[in-house]
Each structure stands twice: as C-alpha cells, then as structure tokens.
Amino acid sequence: MKSAAVVFVFSLALVGLASCGQYVPNNWQSGGQDPAEVEVVELPFEDDGGVQQVHITLAPHTSAPGAVVVSFASSTKAEEAGVYYREEGVGQASFAQARMTQYNHTTFQNDGTYTSPYLYHALIEEVSTNITVFYEPVLTQEQGVTLSRSLRVPPLASAFGGDPEQEMKLAMVGDIGQTSNSVQTMDHITQELGDVAAMVVMGDLSYADNIDARWDNWGRLFEPVLDKIPLFGLPGNHEIETDQEDGVSFRPYAHRFQNMPTCDNGCGGFDNKGWKANMWYSYNIGSAHIIHVSSYHKYEAGSPQYMWLDRDLSSLDRTKTPWVIVNLHAPWYNSNVAHQGEFQSYAIRREWQPLLCQHRVNMMFAGHVHSYERVFPTCDNSTVDYHRGITYVNIGDGGNREGLYNNWLPGENGRAGPIWSAFREGSYGHGVLHIMNSTHAFWKWHRNNDGDKVTRDTTYIVNEVAWEAKRDDKETVKESTTFVNNFFDVQISFIPFFILVALLCYSIAITVLYKKRNAAAKRDYESLTEMSVTNKL
Ligand SMILES: [Fe+2]
User: Fold this and answer.
1) Domain-embedded: residue 85
2) Taking burial as the number of CB atoms within 10 A of a residue's CB, which of 19, 79, 425, 524 is the most buried?
C-alpha cells in the first residue's frame, strides 16, 4: 500500500506543477499597487502642411451598408479637402468631400490654449460591401492622384439582408495609450490585418490627459494601423479632458472621432454644429449589433442615454442580428484591487443590467482596469447562468502609460477569486472575438510576451437566443442551462486532469496486484504449512 500512496502523492505534485507558471511581465513592479508610469513614445515629426493622422471607421446604415468615414488632420486649411477612392476592379476614382472642424482646448497641462490642426472627416457612402477600397486623402482636388492606401469593407451585415450565419473577427482592446507596450499591442493587431473586420476600443485611447499634442502624436504613431483597420471607439475617463475656460468636456475626442456621423438611430451625446460625436451609438457589422455606451454620461432611467439604449435594444430582431454586444469603459465586474467601488461601475450595472439581461445581450466588453479578466456568463454576482447570462470581458490592457494592475482580490470562503471570475491576469495584450456563425463564437486573449503574442485565455460562447430558436426542445434547454454557481469557479485543464486520472488508475492497479500477490503468497504459505504438518504426522 505504501508504494500506491507514494505514486498518488507524486501524481498530485505533477498536476500542481502543470497548473502553475504565472507570467510576470518585464515592467511589473513586484508587489506594487502603483506601478511606475511608462514613457510615452514620441514620433519625430516635421510639419510640411500635408495630410497626417489618417484613421478610418465604418458607418453602415440602411441606405449605405458599406459606408466608410476617412478622418485626417492637417495644419493647412483646405476648403477642397476630401478623399479620392476607388473600389477594387473599378477604373475610375470618385471623390468624397470632407467636412472640416477645429477646436481650442484650454488646460493647465497645455499651459494655456491649444489650437488643434484642421480635422477633416469624409463620409464615403457610394461603396459596395465585401470589397477592397483604395483611397487617398487630399487637401486639393487634382487629376491623377495615386491611391496609396486601402481598406476592406466587410460583407453585407445581416441587419441589412446579409447572411446571419456569416463569420467575422473583431480585434478588441482598451486603454491603448502611446507607450512601447501600446506599440507592441498595435503591432500584434496589425498582424491580424485582413483577418479582422474592425478594431473596437473600449475607451482611453491616447492618454493625452489634457496635453493635446499627445493626441496628435497618437494619431501619427498609429496611422500605419488606423488607416487600414476601421476603429470603433467610445469615451473613457481619459477622454473627459474638461476645458478650464468653458467647462466643456470630451472636446478633443468629439472633434477627432466621428464614429457614426449619420446617427440614423438617434445616437448622441455631443453635437457640435451638426457633427455628432457619438458618446453613445450602435452599428451593425457581420451578424452582430454592437452598442457603445458611455460610463461618464447620465445613465439613470429617464436620461437621454438610458432612453436611447432601451429604444435601441427594443428595436432588435434577433433573427436578423443574432449577436448583441454592449461595450463601455468602466467594467461591471472586476476582481482587481484597482478601481473598486466606483459608481460608474456598480451604479450603472444596477440600473442597466436588468435591461440588458431582459434583452439577452450576449457579451459586454470594458476597459479601465489595466489588466485582463473574463467573467462567467451572469446576470448577478452570485450565479452563473449560461442561458440568460452576459459574458463580461475586461480588456483595459492595451498599453497605457500608468502601468499594469496585477493585485487581485481573493474570493469567498477561501477561494482564490470570486465565483464569477473565470480568468484574470495582469499583462498587456488584446483579444480577438471570432463570431463563427449565429450560435457560436470563439474568444481568444493574447498577452504581449517579450515581442510575441501568446494566447492565454480561450473560450467558446454560445448564443443561446439563436441556439434556442434552432432547437425544438426549448424548455429542456432552459431547464438544463441555468446553474447555481458553486461548481464553476474550479477550473481543471484537460492535460493535468488526464495525468491525474491515469496515475490514479495506475495506483489502483498496483494496489490490486499487490493484494493478489499477498493473497497468493498467503495461500502458498498455508499449503506449505499444511504439507509440513501432514509430513510430520
Ligand atoms: Fe479609464
């Protein structure tokens, strides 16, 4: 029996070894709650008055499902500015006139008033879907302009009549900033060029923090990515940047990003002479309806944002848009020591979670906390509900200048973490959401690991709304997929589990053989003893 016990203890040790191996990032200050700030990467720049800071987004709507917005900046005021563009396979280039805006921003950090470059936004509506578009922003209209840039317009979204079973990938990231870590994250996203339809940023884009020259540096630093992959942003706390003179907030963000200029469904939050800056808005891409909301605007029932959200969710037809994803900045679930107790998290969750669960939202992405955490599907903080729950992901790990947060709260009753926390790690990185069809999606989180992107967390997400619609035995599904979560906080990976089972079987086999051998030896001894007694007699 002794040998069997030794084998069992050894097997447990093996399993333990296989399960650990925590990665410690290079720039993490051990034990630190307040990691050192990381240097901003300054891109050398000499202004020749030309086009700079080119970035693109998509603006799909009913009459123009392939619409694109091309934004750029220049110190030159140009009434004729716009974008030449041509679809792949079409000989003749077309021209879209840009609208121009500019802003002043008075802050202590700007040491007075900063005046932005002229900011241009061109809406291209006459464009097909599922096609490559070559384009070039210009300040003057002239013949024979070389179209040196290109973007890919995704296939027709299911909301506009496209296939609800189509697949699509989105790069998801938050709290980007402009440090060496930010550059690494954006390099990794660039590696997915041609694979992802868009990049979705959960706020805190530049960490300009009232120094507007940093917005310009950010725009130039990431132009090689942002002029190819459409960006959908939302306002984080680092976008607030209140003007000291007139008290207006979000001004730089509002002028630089025009996410959905047509605002078909009444999105809003900031309207500057006809320019909708879209503090909250929604869009249809692939088979998903994606909603961006603000953690820093009024949210209570009856507020403009709440009423818009309620109306937007109520208007959805899940046979047309099977997936519904909501993105914001301040996470509703967070087991990191940092950013606990912020009302932008708990108060908005209290107000909106019933609404989102009622409409059976599939996923929510957030930023703000400079680490990665995935939360089991839930509609409250004590149960896992795979049927009606929302899968929450905090992905505020893009590379900000404030450093990583790697101190975590323990869970209930001696657990390592809260019962709702599925995976957490304090590393920089980004994620890719792969919507495979109407019922299944695959989520993958990569961390930046010394230059390589390393996959650390993966999971499948089942869209129960679409899955249920495809099944006959709907009631059975409903019964069997709602669980009280006292079981799902234990994660056992397959390999150590397999080793454990194999070693246990081996231990049992050894024990059985040992017992059999002892029984045989006993029988031999007894027969020998019997023979000896018989011989004596
Ligand atoms: Fe933040």
Assistant:
1) no
2) 425
Cα–Cα distance, 378 to 422 (Å, whole number): 11
- CATH code of the domain containing 449: 3.60.21.10
Given a contact cutoff of 8 angstroms between Cβ atoms, the answer to whether 369 and 339 are in contact is yes
DSSP-derived secondary structure for 432-468 = EEEE-SSSEEEEEEEEEETTEEEEEEEEEEE-HHHHH
Burial of 519 (0-12, 13-18, 19+ CB in 10 A): exposed
Q: Using a pLDDT cut of 90, give the percent of the chain over it.
A: 69
Whether 436 and 397 map to the same domain: the answer is: yes
Q: What is the DSSP letter of 529?
A: H
Angle separating helix axes 494-536 and 2-19, nearest 10 degrees? 170
Within-domain flag for 475: yes
Tally of CB atoms within 10 A around 367:
31
pLDDT in tens, 81-112: 999 999 999 989 999 999 999 999 999 999 99
Claim to verify: residue 238 and residue 355 sit in the same structural domain:
yes
pLDDT at 414 (0 to 100) = 87
- Measured CA distances, 299 to 63, 258, 269, 341, 351 (Å): 31, 22, 12, 17, 8
- Residue 35 CA to ligand 1 center (angstroms) comes to 15
Are residues 172 and 431 in contact, defined by beta-carbon separation less than 8 angstroms? Answer: yes
388-444 pLDDT tens trace: 899 999 999 999 888 889 899 998 888 899 989 999 999 999 999 999 999 999 999
Q: Are 246 and 312 within one domain?
A: yes
Q: Which residue has the tokens 């019933």?
A: 354
63-75 tens-digit pLDDT: 999 999 999 999 9
Residue 307: phi, psi to the nearest 5? -65, -40
Residue 465 corresponds to which tokens in the numbers above?
A: 């709304």
Domain containing 425: what range? 165-483
Residues 443 and 522 in one domain: no
How many other C-beta atoms are found inside a 10 Å radius of the C-beta of residue 535?
A: 7
Q: From the CA of 16, how far away is ligand 1's center (Å)?
A: 36
Integer angstrom CA distances of residue 414 from 54, 110, 340, 375, 411 = 51, 49, 20, 19, 6
- Based on the residue annotation, tell me whether 430 is a catalytic residue of this protein: no
Same-domain pairing of 408 and 522 = no
Choosing from 238, 297, 339, 368, the catalytic residue is: 339
Number of domain units in the chain: 2
- Measured in Å, residue 517 CA sits from the centre of ligand 1 at 68
3-class DSSP state of 112? strand
Could you tell me if 169 and 78 are in contact, meaning their C-beta atoms sit under 8 angstroms apart?
no
Whether 414 is covered by a domain: the verdict is: yes
CA distance 14 to 467: 39
d(CA 411, CA 57): 41
Considering the domain architecture, whether residues 208 and 356 belong to the same structural domain is answered as: yes
Question: What distance in angstroms lies between residue 266's CA and the mean position of ligand 1's atoms?
Answer: 26
- Measured in Å, residue 332 CA sits from the centre of ligand 1 at 13
Could you tell me if 59 and 122 are in contact, meaning their C-beta atoms sit under 8 angstroms apart? no
